[in-house]
């Protein structure tokens, strides 16, 4: 059974991120399963660090984008929105070329917070980064919210 409150198309998700950081670095949402979200990121001149490998910050952008999309798809966005409170990432294996793939799954879906785990793999399917993001679920109009 799907956990999503709404299920936009992949085209709608990608269009919403096209004119901001995820779009600028080539991030694409590629799959929306019943309880997970998948996205890809090219390892190229936009996402490499000076030593020629995927920048850790680019991995975090992938993780945060997937976790944020997932969190906001779970809630009724007419009443709530989700914002990141904390994110961490363990960089396990360098990636110099190709495309990395991130898969986000919820670890906790609460009334006021969510925790998402994002596993990022290299082109061979080997784990290169594991990240966890905590999202606050905020009611519209609360704490200066929309």
CATH architectural name: Roll
Low-confidence stretches: none
Whole-number radius of gyration? 15 Å
What is the succession of H and E elements?
HHEEHEEEE
Task: List the total number of helices.
Answer: 3
Helix coverage percent: 10-25%
Record the strand order, biggest sheet.
1-2-4-5-6-3
CATH class: Alpha Beta
Secondary structure category = alpha+beta
| CATH fold-level label | Thiol Ester Dehydrase, Chain A
Shape: globular
- The overall pLDDT average reads 96
> What does the largest sheet look like?
6 strands, antiparallel
Overview of this structure, please?
The chain has 146 residues and is of the alpha+beta class. It has a single domain, classed as Roll (Thiol Ester Dehydrase, Chain A). The chain has helices spanning 10-16, 21-24, 56-74, and strands spanning 28-32, 37-43, 80-91, 98-109, 113-121, 127-139. It has a 6-stranded antiparallel β-sheet with strand order 1-2-4-5-6-3. The chain is globular.
Short characterization:
The protein is 21% helix and 40% strand.
Features:
146 residues, alpha+beta, Thiol Ester Dehydrase, Chain A, six-stranded antiparallel beta sheet, 3 helices, 21% helix, EC 3.1.2.28, PAAI_dom, 1,4-dihydroxy-2-naphthoyl-CoA thioesterase activity, hydrolase, Thioestr_dom
List the helices and strands and how they pair.
Layout: H1 10-16, H2 21-24, E1 28-32, E2 37-43, H3 56-74, E3 80-91, E4 98-109, E5 113-121, E6 127-139
Antiparallel strand pairs: 1-2, 2-4, 3-6, 4-5, 5-6
């Amino acid at each position: 059974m799907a956990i999503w409150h709404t299920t936009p198309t992949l085209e709608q998700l990608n269009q919403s991120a096209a004119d901001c950081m995820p779009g600028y670095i080539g991030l694409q949402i590629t799959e929306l399963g019943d309880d997970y979200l998948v996205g890809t990121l090219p390892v190229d001149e936009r996402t490499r660090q000076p030593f020629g490998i995927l920048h850790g910050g680019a991995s975090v952008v992938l993780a945060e984008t997937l976790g944020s999309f997932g969190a906001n798809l779970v809630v009724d966005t007419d009443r709530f929105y989700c914002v990141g409170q904390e994110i961490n990432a363990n960089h396990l294996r360098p990636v110099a070329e190709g495309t990395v793939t991130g898969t986000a799954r919820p670890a906790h879906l609460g009334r006021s917070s969510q925790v998402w785990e994002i596993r990022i793999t290299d082109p061979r399917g080997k784990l290169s980064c594991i990240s966890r993001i905590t999202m606050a679920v905020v009611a519209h109009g609360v704490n200066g919210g929309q």
